[in-house]
Amino acid sequence: MALPEPEEKLRQKLFSDWQLSPEQPFFLACSGGVDSTALLHAAHALALRVEVLHVNHHWHPDSARWAEHVATLAAGYGYPCRLLDLPAEQKGEGPEDRARRGRYALFAGQLQEGDWILSAQHRDDQAETLVLQLLRGAGSDGLAAMPERRRLGAGTLGRPFLELTRAALRQYLRQQGIRWLEDPANSDLRYARARLRQRIWPLFHELGWPQASASIARSAANIADQLAVEDAWYAQQAMRCWLGGAVGRVLSVDFVKEWAPALQRVFLRRWLRDLGANVPDRQSLERLRQLFGPSQGGRRVELADLRAWRQGQRVQLWQNGPRHTIPAQEWRPHAPCGRGAGFRWCWGQATGPAPGLSEGAVIVGGTELQGRTLRWSKRRAGARYRNVSGHQRPLKKFLLELGIPPFLRDDVPILWTDTEEILWIPDFYLRKPALPEKEVLWVDLIRTTANS
To answer: What are the Lysidine-tRNA(Ile) synthetase C-terminal domain coordinates in residue numbering (predicted)?
Structure first.
């Protein structure tokens, strides 16, 4: 006997298309609405190992009752349910965007390497997403709408229902005799998606396009294919274009300038996305692209959340936001671990950061630093340093050689030894320690938010 369509689609995606093991455990995002309830019921029908995640947005008087409903529903299937509370303060362009970002941040926080979370977005959601992205003037990243699967935190987000319609999921639950919640926000015309559902899709039907959502979703899939081609091309080119410094943050002008303008824009969008920066509008992206033109040495471009600088045949990028704010101070790494103003340290093994430090921690030296006085300071006029050969050189010249732009040279923190050697300039330079050592000194920065 054939499986109902949602169950067959879920089985196909998990075990055929995505090649997952039947023993793979899943998190399943469930709001209690028709889509996620259908996914939950189909998961139980396939005997999947599931833990339900429900996010309480606290924006409706019945939010607590909805959370209770989902917990009861999960328990009826024999599944554990984890209730998550969305913090009141979220970044985003509007209430819908803030809620979406907050949900995914909460989900990402639950996932470890190898974990999967399933979400029930469907074909109509996909079509709505593409239309909304068009109205925002999005590029190919946005117009590809929602991918079937992507990284989320340390795990993977999967959307197995993107080829099914909302109507098919409703029919499935009705046939199974399963009740679901109706969120009033879905018909509240203050929200963009509700306006599309209540006003635009009926108009498409009235004007003779009953398959509008299917056609639009198909366009999103075609754009996603093109996006995959662009991503593959970018991956091939990126290693040729990256220069020294933090990986990916410095680009070679010689390579980029040879491409047609359209390819330059494709590459720069991918570059910004890889660095975690917001991709700017086309006009701002064009200003960035022009840095790779002739006679642009020394030019600086300021965008909303980043700035770029051309020096010779290299372009460097900095994001505004978390910055290193370390005041001048002396310290001695005599204890196993310690903390100063804006940083912390631990002695440990060279195989990985000591406990309590972030993945951004670095090794600044070994046992030769025990008992010595180290100091943080910023550049002073006329300062000199001792290089690895023991010779003194002007600090100004060293900072220039590292490619640190003039507008940052007075601001970067520098970690010195008591013999005027430079151990570390975060983001720009790290002295190579004489490894292996039985014990090494790890130093980690505590970043603070700044707009400069």
So the answer is: 374-445
Say if residue 436 is preceded by a cis peptide, omega within 30 of 0. yes
Asked if 340 and 329 count as a contact pair (C-beta separation under 8 A), the reply is yes
Contacts of 71 by beta carbon, 8 Å cutoff, 6+ apart: 52, 54, 81, 83
Question: Cα(339)–Cα(444) distance, rounded to whole angstroms?
Answer: 9
How many CA atoms lie less than 13 Å away from 206 in the CB half-sphere?
A: 6
Please compute the mean of the pLDDT values over residues 317-336 and round it to a whole number: 78
Condensed to tens digits (0 to 9), the pLDDT of residues 164-188 reads: 999 999 999 999 999 999 888 788 8
**One-letter identity of residue 224:** A
Q: Find out whether 31 is annotated in a ligand binding site.
A: yes
| 371 labeled part of a ligand binding site | no
Instruction: Confirm whether residue 33 is marked as ligand binding.
Output: yes
Own/partner long-range contacts of 377-380 (Cβ < 8 Å, ≥24 apart): 377/328, 377/413, 377/414, 377/416, 378/328, 378/410, 378/411, 378/412, 378/413, 378/414, 379/409, 379/410, 379/412, 379/414
- Least confident among 29-38, 265-274, 400-409: 400-409
Name the nearest CA neighbour of 447 among 355, 351, 342, 366: 342
Q: Is 390 helix (H, G, I), strand (E, B) or coil?
A: coil
230, 219 Cβ separation under 8 angstroms: no
Three-class SS state of 168: helix
Average pLDDT (280-285) is 88
> Does 153 count as an annotated binding residue?
no
190-204 confidence digits (pLDDT tens) = 888 899 999 999 999
Confirm whether residue 32 is marked as ligand binding: yes
34 annotated ligand-binding residue: yes
At 361-397, the pLDDT tens digits run 889 988 888 889 999 998 888 889 998 888 899 999 9
How far from chain centre, in Å, is Cα 394?
Answer: 39
